[in-house]
Every structure is written in C-alpha cells, then in structure tokens.
Design brief:
alpha+beta; 5 helices; 29% strand; globular
Length: 226
C-alpha cells in the first residue's frame, strides 16, 4: 500500500477542482482497505473514498484526511446472469461486457461515467432502467465495525437517485463489490421504451432492437448531449 502526502485533489476529480488531501492511498484489494483504515485511525483522521471522481467537488482547502482511491477490479458472470463486479471497474466497460457476453438489464445505463461501486450510491438510472432493477447486494467495508459485510439490495435504501450510502450512512462504508442479476438475451427481450431513444432506435429498422442496438443508441444520444 503506497501512501502519498499532500496530493492535489483536482488531479483526482473530473471537474479538476480541489486543494490538497493530507493523504491519498490507492487500494487494490480488501487487505489494502484494512491497512488504509488502520492508517487513518493511527492518524486520527477521517477517511473517504473516490472512484473516478465524477460528480465530486472538493474545496480549495482540500481534505484533512485520508482519500482512498478505489482500484479494485474484477468481473465475473455466471450462465444464469449473476454478475459480481469489483467496485473499481469502469462502469461503461461493465455494461459493454455484459451485453457482449449475452446479457441484458443494464444496457440503457451505457456511457454513464464513473465506477461500478458508485452506481448504488445514486441508484443511477437512465432511459427507463435503474441499478435497483438488477442489484442483488453490495459488499462493503464498514468503517464503524471494521468488518466486511454484504448488504442486500432491500437494505440499501434505494430510491430515485439516492440510497443509504448517500444519506444516513454517507461516508460510513467503502464499497468493494456489487452483485447484479442480469438476464440472458433471448427472443423475449423487449427494448426500453423511452421517447428520446425512439428516433435513434428507429434507425435499426426493426421492431425488436437487441440490447447491443439499445446500447449503441444510448451512446449516440448521450454523446450528443455531452
């Protein structure tokens, strides 16, 4: 575990705003997280987590604590669509992998910036889909108890663009993995019905767009907006 001192937070956020952090630690495993938490306790400092730093703003005063950069990677999916995704995985890459490997359920969430671990925090959603539609559980490190626990989706307080991770338990948990239940692509697949996608999907010249075609259409629409 490498500990860096007085690093400018503007270098770790998409908006490139923020002063120095007392310490920055990149974690690549659950053991690294244990060590980072112990380090923060030894310094009697608060600890907070960053993925890609999207939608995060720090003040010019910085953060007098330990910033944990979540770099955990890993993606597995079973034949029945149970996907286990490390929190540091790039979210759009996860969507691409799921569609490419023959599963649907998150294709409309294409091109959303950030990491997989951030998706349950805001209960990300787009074009008729939300992460709550497929979320099974969230694995976290509880900074209060010092334990790793698995929180079922029903206990995550998921609502429109919010969750317990964003509200009452903000800053308490370090998310290490999410588990999703996706569905194998078959003839019963129905594309999300969303007005802003309609014209783009019409270019497919089919009454039954595939998840791959939905992903392509979402990327096209979002790219225009961005």
């Amino acid at each position: 575990m490498e500990v860096l001192e007085s690093k400018q937070l503007k270098n770790y956020t998409s908006m490139h705003i923020g002063g120095p952090a007392a310490y920055v630690v990149a974690v690549h495993s659950e053991q690294d997280i244990l060590e980072a938490a112990a380090f923060a306790r030894s310094k009697d400092m608060p600890i907070t987590t960053l993925g890609d730093g999207t939608n995060v703003v720090f003040s010019d005063a910085g953060f007098k604590g330990v910033i944990v950069l979540n770099k955990l990677v890993g993606f597995t999916i079973s034949d029945d669509g149970l996907a286990q995704i490390a929190a540091g995985e790039n979210w759009d890459a996860v969507v691409e992998k799921s569609v490419t490997q023959g599963f649907y359920g998150i294709e409309a969430l294409s091109l959303i910036p950030g990491t997989a671990g951030a998706t349950p925090v805001n209960n990300v959603g787009a074009y008729g889909q939300e992460i709550s539609d497929t979320l099974v559980s969230v694995r976290v490190f509880d900074t209060k108890s010092g334990d790793f626990i698995d929180i079922p989706a029903s206990d995550c307080g998921l609502a429109y663009r919010t969750s317990r991770f964003k509200n009452e338990d903000h800053g308490r948990f370090i998310i290490t993995q999410i588990t999703l239940q996706l569905k194998p692509i078959d003839a019963s697949y129905v594309a999300p019905s969303y007005p802003s996608l309609a014209s783009e999907l019409a270019k497919c010249n089919t009454d039954q767009p595939t998840p791959s075609q939905v992903r392509t259409a979402v990327i096209a629409v979002r790219s225009l907006k961005l």
